[in-house]
Amino acid sequence: MTHPEEILLEIEGLEKSFGDRKVLEGINLQVGKGEVIVILGPSGCGKSTFLRCLNGLEPVQAGRIHYRSQDLAKPDVDFREVRQHIGMVFQNYELFPHMTVIENILLGPLKVQKRSRDEAQRQAEQLLERVGLLDRKDAYPRQLSGGQKQRIAIVRALCMNPEIMLFDEVTASLDPEMVREVLEVILGLAKQGMTMLIVTHEMGFARSVGDRIVFMDQGKICEISSPEQFFTSPSTERAQHFLDIFQYDKL
Amino acid sequence: MMVYIFGGRVGVHMQLNWEFMIESLPLYGAAMWLTFKLAFWGILFSLLIGLVFSVILYYKVKVVSSVILAYVELSRNTPLLVQLFFLYYGLPKVGVHLSETACAIIGLTFLGGSYMTEAFRSGIEAVGRTQIESGLSIGLSKVQLARYVILPQAFAISIPSLGANVIFLLKETSIVGAIALMDLMNVAKDLIGMYYKTAESLLLLVLAYLVMVLPLSLVLSWVERKVRYAEFGD
Ligand SMILES: Nc1ncnc2c1ncn2[C@@H]1O[C@H](COP(=O)(O)OP(=O)(O)OP(=O)(O)O)[C@@H](O)[C@H]1O
Ligand SMILES: [Mg+2]
Questions:
Q1: Domains of chain A
Q2: Which residues line ligand 1 (CB under 6 A)?
């Protein structure tokens, strides 16, 4: 979907600094409904910070983030409300260790969204079934593998019925054999038309899941292109350089 | 009935008057009950104060946080005896009259509240940033975050120091005799004063404290193991 009819999220001139240090500079991006945006870029270029800004975990200094007729860059935004619509899963976003899998998943739906237990539980079980972990619903996080935990974290976010999902290197701390099971869940979401912003270092995955690739370097977006174009003939030298390093790493 | 206990090599021998000891038991029993009551309420209120204050400190609530920090310093840096005297002899001068029991419970709470605040606070600080962010990311409010995510974990982490504080407060009750309460210390002192049965009275005193503190220690370490396992599995 390169030309979506409906723009869900529109970011204009976003600026973010930590102290004197500029981390995001003039970020512009439009995300269409059902679109999958993959964000690539070297370490420290601001990918995580960008996603965190979209969810109010980092205050921003300038720019606008249009979402549902609100500007999320304003200081008075009710992020409790926003976070129910923009779910996120991060590299080391831990599950709550003192709660079972099902309790982890139901906390948001029951306490934040005040849904009925029956209905929320039914949805949670359906989602668990989909990621192949229904039989682990009463387990504690410590009894699960890294890949299982990350799939549960995804289910926990999905059970809030978000409109947009943010993924920040969700497979980065996993053993190689577990990467696949997590990426498959995300691919499944893409097929269902979930709007997503995904930061990843898995290039094959980026290529197959992304509608558009956003390449960032030093706090700026250098190029936005289709996966085909980006991986075969990127238009900027920096992107080419970035891809070369990845090729080299592969050898 | 007389029983002789010989101290072996040094040749010290001492007679214990068992009859006297048995007759004194009800006095000790009453004092233990008093100690238990004071400790129970003092500890309970201290825990509540610690819980509330540590959360306020965590969220850095303006003004209130500074007041709490001042209280913690004041409470930790003055002896309980002084605090009790202030309540018992000082307050009546400004027209506030409290019963001995109320003074003792308030004094213990004033002391214990700061210790419990510090214990909870270190537990809260040990809960990782990512836990908090993952709570925020599902839309929890600050109060819900504290209740469902931070405090249960902080509690498990704090249990050893909370337990140490509980034992500490129970032992600190031994000072309430200073404001004329018939606690264990006072019973023993009276018996020694009236009957000169020093060894018997002191032995009973030690035993009475052991009977109260030992089971509590055991229960606490059992709770500690249970909670730790439930939370973290190790
Ligand atoms: N809380 C913070 N305080 C100060 N500087 C920060 C903070 N968080 C991130 N930074 C800095 O901001 C820059 C961007 O960080 P960010 O984590 O967004 O990069 P990234 O693209 O996600 O990198 P990686 O691929 O390694 O995850 C880095 O230079 C980092 O050192
Ligand atoms: Mg990052």
A1: 7-250 (3.40.50.300)
A2: A 18, 23, 41, 43-49
